[in-house]
Amino acid sequence: MTIRRLFEALFFVALFVMGVRETLDADMWWHLRTGEYIWQQGIPRQDVFSFTVPDHAWITHEWLSQVVMWLVYQAGGFPALILLFALLTAVTFWLVYLCCAGRPYLAAFVVLLAAITAAIVWGARPQMFNLLLTAVYIYIIEQVKDGFERHGHDTLRAFWLLPVGMLLWANFHSGYLLGVVLLGTYVVGEAVQQQFHQTDKRTLPWPAIRRLFVVTVISFLVAALNPNGPELWIYPFFTLGSSAMQTYIQEWHSPDFHLAMFWPFAAMLALGVLSFVFSQRRITITDLLLFLGTGAAGLLSARHIPLFALVAAPIIARHSLSALTGTQAHPVLSGEVAEPPPTRLLRGLNGLVLVFAILGALGWSAAKIGQNDTVVAERYPVAAVDFLEDQGLAAAHGYNSYNWGGYLIWRGLPVFVDGRADVYGDDFLFFYRHTFDVTEKWQEPLAAFNVTYVLMERGSPLTTLLHTTTGWQQVYEDDVATIFIRDGE
């Protein structure tokens, strides 16, 4: 094993280790229960988990992700879920790495920065399938473009994999629309480059652009081949247009650069601009559209930052390497320096290093898995739900924290609200917030649904109010949650 191969293997192991995370996503719980429901009874068309909106339509746009998650859980519990999504994460960014110039060293640095940037959304959640398929699309298109740069031609047959991928994508996640927009951006960028600007070796010729346009249209059309049919074409726009989701769900907010978690995103933006300024390659229209478009999306909503990380990494790597042309670092970072054949001793040492790295990754994974239950109990009302079950209140109508609704569904309790904001709709979510925000109308949601108990985070404004409100009494509290019940219940 050469030093280069060892470095790449260690890099993949590092990506996997970064992806090993406890099952803390607030929506994972209801995704699992939905997967179970679909596997046993079929795809639901209306809400089946709440007592507040049972008549509301439910577009289960992530049904295939949910079934996969449930089957994996059935096979190996939460450890299997943790390992699956760590592997998905590693494969996603490995595909991005394969799209980058300057392998292994420069590419690894850029992709590592991209991975850290995107890590804000990692976890056991359907969105990870969304990121994986985005990486697959980027890989396919960039491989075709690299073929023109290296050989001056390409068969273009790889483009026909894109509609096949879209058929899967539209059933895994409604983020399939990102794939269509990504393809459309390549079509527009390459066409404008051919028509109005100087081309380079990576610019697609007109026959390839026309074929990519046809593939884009077909990909959009095949997205209708899902249980919800053509309705999935417009579903993403309802999500993007939801004022309640934009207001109350943190992922939809613009990034706050006072928080360290968003600094890698700022670093990628800055590195991208610097690479453009000093690059000796002409910046193509496609690169500009992809970088600026996904960068603007990330600035508007933190949820879109991982998309920027995936799309921008190959662009940044390509122009950063060009900026280093003529320097002593360029031959090494470009991978042009030939590596001498390793001696038997060096091969043995490299293999030993890799074995220790894998053992370390396994140990890290085992430690994360081992502490999963403890970490979950620190975030979710595990003991509080045990109390509700012991007191015979599990089937009663309760008012719960939005962030805990998914966990309550997992435990089999009917919920007031949970993370399926699209199911509840803006009107209901604003109504729910009357109580949560302790407005003048805070008692109306509780009365409208005959709420018996309130389960909220300890120290929340609502629990503080209930302490001083006639008709309510506290019956439980721990470090995580507080429960109030109506007098006489």
Q: What does it look like?
A:
The chain is mainly α. The protein folds into two domains: 3-333, no CATH class; 380-486, no CATH class. The chain contains 21 helices and four strands. Strands 1-2-4-3 form a four-stranded mixed sheet, covered by helices on one side. Helix 5 (127-151) runs parallel beside helix 13. It is globular, with a radius of gyration of 25 Å. The mean pLDDT is 93.
Global geometry: globular
Largest sheet entry: 4 strands, mixed
SSE order, one letter for each helix or strand: HHHHHHHHHHHHHHHHHEHHHEHEE
Number of strands: 4
| Structure annotation, total helices | 21
* Mean pLDDT rating: 93
- Assign a percent range to the helix content: 55-70%
Integer count of domains: 2
Euclidean distance between termini CA atoms: 70 Å
Q: What radius of gyration results from the CA coordinates?
A: 25 Å
How large is the share of residues in beta strands?
A: under 5%
Topology:
Blueprint (H helix, E strand, L loop, with lengths): L2 H17 L8 H14 L21 H36 L6 H14 L8 H25 L9 H12 L3 H21 L9 H17 L8 H10 L2 H6 L14 H16 L6 H16 L4 H19 L5 H5 L10 H27 L1 H8 L2 H9 L7 E3 L4 H6 L10 H16 L7 H5 L4 E5 L3 H7 L4 E6 L3 E6 L3
Parallel strand pairs: 1-2
Antiparallel strand pairs: 2-4, 3-4
Helix pairs in contact: 1-3, 1-4, 1-15, 2-3, 3-4, 3-5, 4-11, 4-13, 5-6, 5-7, 5-13, 6-7, 6-8, 7-8, 7-12, 11-13, 12-13
Describe this structure in a few short sentences.
By secondary structure, the protein is mostly helical. 63% of the residues lie in helices and 4% in strands. The chain contains 21 helices and four strands.
